[in-house]
C-alpha cells in the first residue's frame, strides 16, 4: 500500500478564487492511501517545496499528488523536489486544478467539486505508480538546417562557429533566399546583396558547413539527438564538383525563352542558368522542362562549350542518408498569389505588380538593370500608386487572403515610396493605407521621412478597384479623411501582397511531427518563453516559417535557434523518458500490429524459446521495444489485440483506475 | 436615445451584419460606383449604425442611391457586407408602420399608361394609412 501525500496549491487567487482549496485538501484526506494532506499559497515557491520535502520525510511518503497548475508548467519542479527528498520522481502526479478547473469555472461550488474529482483521480493513479528510471541516448553532433535563406544561413553560421558540423538543405540551386532578391533594406537603406553575399561566402568557405543545394528533405526518422534524414539531391545535369561557374554555357544555350524565376518571370533566362552573379554554390543548373537535349536529345551546346566537362545529361536524382542530432526548420515565406484579387487588375495589366516584383525592377541586377520602367512598354512611370494590405488582415476570405497582418509591408512600402521619390523626383507617389504600423527602432522616423522629406502622399483608405484604360491605370479608392472617393490616373500600381509560409513547410512539418497553426506557420513550444523551439524535441524554428518577420528579427531568431541547437549538441548523452512501451512476452502473439503503427520504428520482433507444457519448448515470435527509441506515444498499446503492450507510467490499469475515480 | 439604439439594433438584426467587424479601411467606399450620388457613403453607413447615429441616415436620400450591386460586399476584407446595412436602413424607412407614404392626391402625377391597375391597388395597400 502506498503512503500518499496530497498538496493543494492556491496559486494566489488563481486557484483559490474559484476553488475552496481547504475543502479540497480536507476531502482528499480520506482517499485510499492518503496519509497526509495540506494546502499552501504557492506550492512552487521555495517554501512550498520545503513543505513537500518535509512531509515526504516526516510521513515516510511513497507517492505525492500536487493539485496545482498544468503539468506543463511545474511537473518538472515537483519531480525535482521529490527527488531531492529521496522519492522517485515518477511517484509524483499533478492534478491540474487551474487550467482545467479554476480558470474555466466561475461557480465556487462547481469548481471545488471538480477539483476534488481531479485530485481523487491523481490519487488513484499514484496508488498504482511504480518507480521508474530513465535511460540515456547518445547525441549525434551534427545539425541539419532546412532552408538556405538568411534565417538558415545565420543559424548554420552560428552553429558552425561553435564547432559543430552543419548541413544546409536548400531546394533552389543557390542559397540566399528572398534576401538575395531584395534591393535595399529598411530603415537604413543598406544594399541587401552587399550585406547578404559576404555571409553566403562565409557559408561556402566554412569547413564545418556543407550545402546541399537543389535538394529536398524527403524523409525524417528517429528522435531528438538521433534523427535519420533522407535528402533528395535533384539532378541538375551539371557535376557540382567540376563546374567552375564560368557561365559560358549560360551565354551559349540556344533556349532563350525560359521565364526567369529569380526576376519573378519579368525577363528570361536560358535553359542552363546560374540564378545570379553571387550564387552559392556558383554552379550551373539545367532546367529539364526547357532543355532540348533532355527533352528530345537534340542540342548539346552546353556540353560542347564547357571547358571543364561538367555537363552530364545522364544525371539522376540521388538520395543521401545522414544522421543529425538537431533539425532547424528555416523554410521561409512567399508572397501570396494575386490571382484572386481581380479588383486590382493584376492579371489584366503588366503594370500592376507586387512589391517583390518592384524590388527586382529597382535592382541593378534586375530585368531593367535598376531603371524604374513600366513592364508593359518600358516607359518611365510618373504616377505610382502603392496599395497596402492586399490580402493581409483579410478575415472574410480565407480562400483569397490571410487573416493576419503581414508585418513587413508598411515598412517596405515606405521604403519603395521613398526610394522612388529619391531617384525620380519627377514622380508622384501615393500610398493607400489602412493603418501604418511602424513599431521598431527607427521605423516611425523612417515612415515620417517618406512623408515629410520626400513628399509621398499617404492616403488613409483602401483602393476599391484598378481599371486599365489605354496606357493608364485608373485607381479608384477612398480618402477617408477628406471623405472623398479618389480616381487617380496611375502609370504603375504596386500591391503589397500578404506573405504566407512556403508550401514546403506543411509536408516538412508532417515528416518532423512538428505542429503548425491554421496558417501553416510552425508553432513554437511556448509563444512567450520558448519562441524558437518546436514542441517536438530536437526541432527548432528560424525565420519567417514561424511567423512574418523582417531581417533583424529573422537574424535574431536564427541566432537564438542556433544557441538552442548548440546547447543540445554540446551534451554527450540525453536523459530519456522512462515512460516507454513494454511488451509482456507471455501475452504477445507476434501479430506485428504494434510494429506497423509505431511512428519511431522502436519495435522489433525476435524468436524466443519458451517452456511449454509437459517439458516441451516452444519457439514464439514476440515484440521487443527499443527503449532508447520509444517516445512513449502509446500507439502500440492501443493497437495490441492481446493486451501485451503497456506503457510504463501510463499503464492501462492506471488509466482505468483514473476513469473509475472520475466516475465514482 | 433609447429608441435610436433600438432602431440600430433592429437594423443590425435585420441585416445580419456585425458592424464591429469593420476595421475602417474604406474599401467599400473606394469600390462604390454610386459614391458621388451619395451624401453618406457605405463606410459611413456601417460606422453610423455601429455608433447609433441613425437619424441622418433615415432622412438621407443616400438610402435610395445604393444600386445594390454588392461590390462592397464582394470586396470587404472583413466580411462586413455594407450593402446589407444600407438595405436594412432603407427597409426601416419603407416599413415604418402607420405612416402615410402615398397620398391619393399625389397619384395623378405619378400615373403611367403602362402601369397596371393591380400595382396601384397594391401600392395603396402597402403605403397608405
Structure commentary:
The complex is a heterodimer of chains A (664) and B (129). With 664 residues, chain A is an alpha/beta fold. Chain A folds into 5 domains: 4-126, Lumazine/riboflavin synthase (Rossmann fold), CATH 3.40.50.960; 142-234 and 317-332 and 502-569, FAD/NAD(P)-binding domain, CATH 3.50.50; 248-305, no CATH class; 335-500, FAD/NAD(P)-binding domain, CATH 3.50.50; 581-648, Alpha-Beta Plaits (2-Layer Sandwich), CATH 3.30.70. Chain A contains 19 helices and 34 strands. The longest helix of chain A is centred in the first third of the chain and has 19 residues, at 108-126. Chain B is globular. The interface between A and B is medium-sized, with 23 and 23 residues.
Please give the domain count of chain A: 5
Radius of gyration of chain A: 31 Å
Kindly state the number of beta strands of chain A: 34
Mean pLDDT of chain B: 89
Which architecture of the largest domain in chain B per CATH?
Orthogonal Bundle
Q: How does the helix and strand content of chain A classify structurally?
A: alpha/beta
Number of domains of chain B: 2
Measured between the Cα atoms of the first and last residue of chain A, the distance is 21 Å
The most extensive interface, with participating residues per chain, is: A-B, 23 and 23 residues
CATH class assignment of the largest domain in chain A: Alpha Beta
> How far from one another are the termini of chain B?
27 Å
- Please give the CATH class of the largest domain in chain B: Mainly Alpha
What letter string, H or E per element, gives the SSE order of chain B? HHHHHHHHH
CATH superfamily of the largest domain in chain B: Alpha-helical ferredoxin
Oligomer: heterodimer
How much strand of chain A? 25-35%
Specify the number of helices of chain A. 19
* Large-scale geometry of chain A: globular
Residue share in helix of chain B: 55-70%
Amino acid at each position: 500500500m502506498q503512503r500518499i501525500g496530497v498538496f493543494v496549491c492556491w496559486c494566489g487567487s488563481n486557484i483559490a478564487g474559484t476553488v475552496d482549496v481547504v475543502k479540497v485538501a480536507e476531502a482528499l484526506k480520506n482517499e485510499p492511501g492518503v496519509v497526509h494532506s495540506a494546502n499552501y499559497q504557492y506550492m512552487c515557491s521555495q517554501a512550498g517545496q520545503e513543505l513537500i520535502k518535509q512531509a515526504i520525510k516526516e510521513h515516510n511518503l511513497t507517492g505525492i499528488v500536487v493539485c496545482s497548475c498544468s503539468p506543463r508548467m511545474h511537473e518538472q519542479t515537483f519531480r525535482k523536489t521529490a527527488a531531492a527528498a529521496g522519492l522517485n520522481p515518477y511517484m509524483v502526479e499533478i492534478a491540474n486544478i487551474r487550467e482545467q478547473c479554476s480558470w474555466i469555472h466561475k461557480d465556487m461550488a462547481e469548481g471545488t467539486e471538480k477539483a476534488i474529482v481531479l485530485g481523487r483521480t491523481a490519487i488513484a493513479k499514484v496508488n498504482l505508480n511504480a518507480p521508474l528510471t530513465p535511460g540515456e541516448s547518445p547525441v549525434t553532433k551534427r545539425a541539419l538546417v532546412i532552408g538556405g535563406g538568411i534565417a538558415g544561413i545565420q543559424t548554420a553560421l552560428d552553429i558552425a562557429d561553435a564547432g559543430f558540423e552543419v548541413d544546409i538543405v536548400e531546394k533552389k540551386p543557390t542559397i540566399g533566399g528572398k534576401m538575395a532578391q531584395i534591393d535595399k533594406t529598411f530603415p537604413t537603406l543598406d544594399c541587401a546583396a552587399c550585406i547578404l553575399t559576404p555571409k553566403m561566402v562565409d557559408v561556402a568557405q566554412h569547413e564545418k558547413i556543407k550545402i546541399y543545394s537543389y535538394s529536398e528533405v524527403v524523409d525524417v526518422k528517429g528522435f531528438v539527438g538521433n534523427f535519420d534524414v533522407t535528402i533528395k539531391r535533384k539532378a541538375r545535369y551539371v557535376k557540382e564538383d567540376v563546374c567552375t561557374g564560368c557561365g559560358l554555357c549560360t551565354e551559349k544555350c540556344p533556349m532563350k525563352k525560359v521565364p526567369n524565376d529569380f526576376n519573378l518571370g519579368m525577363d528570361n533566362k536560358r535553359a542552363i542558368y546560374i540564378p545570379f552573379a553571387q550564387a552559392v554554390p556558383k554552379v550551373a543548373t539545367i532546367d529539364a522542362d526547357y532543355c532540348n537535349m533532355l527533352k528530345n536529345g537534340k542540342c548539346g551546346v552546353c556540353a560542347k562549350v564547357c571547358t571543364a566537362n561538367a555537363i552530364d545529361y545522364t544525371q539522376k536524382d540521388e538520395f543521401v542518408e545522414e544522421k543529425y542530432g538537431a533539425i532547424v526548420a528555416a523554410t521561409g515565406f512567399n508572397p501570396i498569389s494575386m490571382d484572386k484579387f481581380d479588383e486590382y487588375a493584376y492579371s489584366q495589366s503588366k503594370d500592376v505588380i507586387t512589391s517583390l516584383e518592384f524590388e527586382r525592377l529597382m535592382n541593378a541586377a534586375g530585368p531593367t538593370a535598376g531603371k524604374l520602367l513600366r513592364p508593359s512598354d518600358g516607359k518611365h512611370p510618373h504616377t505610382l500608386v502603392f496599395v497596402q494590405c492586399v490580402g493581409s488582415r483579410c478575415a472574410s476570405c480565407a480562400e483569397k487572403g490571410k487573416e493576419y497582418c503581414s508585418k513587413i509591408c508598411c515598412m517596405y512600402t515606405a521604403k519603395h515610396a521613398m526610394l522612388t521619390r529619391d531617384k525620380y523626383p519627377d514622380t508622384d507617389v501615393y500610398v493607400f493605407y489602412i493603418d501604418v504600423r511602424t513599431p521598431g527602432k527607427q521605423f516611425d522616423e523612417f515612415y515620417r521621412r517618406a512623408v515629410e522629406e520626400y513628399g509621398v502622399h499617404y492616403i488613409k483608405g483602401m483602393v476599391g478597384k484598378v481599371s486599365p484604360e489605354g496606357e493608364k491605370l485608373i485607381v479608384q479608392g477612398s480618402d477617408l479623411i477628406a471623405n472623398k472617393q479618389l480616381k487617380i490616373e496611375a502609370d504603375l500600381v504596386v500591391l503589397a501582397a500578404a506573405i504566407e509560409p512556403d508550401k514546403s513547410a506543411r509536408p516538412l512539418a508532417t515528416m518532423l511531427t512538428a505542429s503548425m497553426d491554421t496558417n501553416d506557420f510552425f508553432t513554437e513550444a511556448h509563444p512567450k518563453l520558448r519562441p524558437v523551439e518546436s514542441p517536438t524535441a530536437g526541432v527548432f524554428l528560424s525565420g519567417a516559417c514561424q511567423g512574418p518577420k523582417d531581417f533583424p528579427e529573422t537574424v535574431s531568431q536564427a541566432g537564438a535557434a542556433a544557441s538552442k541547437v548548440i546547447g543540445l549538441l554540446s551534451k554527450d548523452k540525453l536523459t530519456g523518458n522512462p515512460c516507454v512501451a513494454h511488451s509482456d512476452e507471455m501475452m504477445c502473439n507476434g501479430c506485428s500490429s504494434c510494429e506497423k503503427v509505431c511512428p519511431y520504428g522502436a519495435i522489433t520482433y525476435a524468436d524466443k524459446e519458451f517452456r511449454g507444457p509437459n517439458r516441451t519448448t516452444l519457439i514464439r515470435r514476440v515484440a521487443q521495444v527499443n527503449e532508447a527509441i520509444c517516445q512513449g506515444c502509446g500507439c502500440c498499446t492501443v493497437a495490441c489485440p492481446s493486451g501485451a503492450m503497456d506503457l510504463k507510467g501510463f499503464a492501462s490499469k492506471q488509466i482505468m483506475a483514473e476513469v473509475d475515480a472520475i466516475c465514482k | 436615445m433609447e429608441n435610436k439604439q433600438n432602431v440600430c439594433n433592429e437594423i443590425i438584426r435585420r441585416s445580419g451584419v456585425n458592424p464591429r467587424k469593420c476595421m475602417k479601411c474604406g474599401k467599400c467606399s473606394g469600390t462604390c460606383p454610386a459614391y458621388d450620388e451619395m451624401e453618406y457613403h457605405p463606410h459611413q453607413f456601417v460606422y453610423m449604425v455601429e455608433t447609433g447615429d441613425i437619424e441622418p441616415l433615415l432622412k438621407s436620400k443616400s438610402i435610395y442611391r445604393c444600386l445594390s450591386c454588392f461590390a462592397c460586399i464582394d470586396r470587404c476584407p472583413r466580411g462586413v457586407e455594407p450593402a446589407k446595412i444600407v438595405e436594412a436602413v432603407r427597409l426601416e424607412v419603407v416599413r415604418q408602420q402607420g405612416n402615410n407614404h402615398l397620398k391619393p392626391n399625389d397619384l395623378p402625377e405619378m400615373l403611367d399608361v403602362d402601369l397596371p391597375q393591380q400595382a396601384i391597388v397594391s401600392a395603396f395597400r402597402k403605403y397608405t394609412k
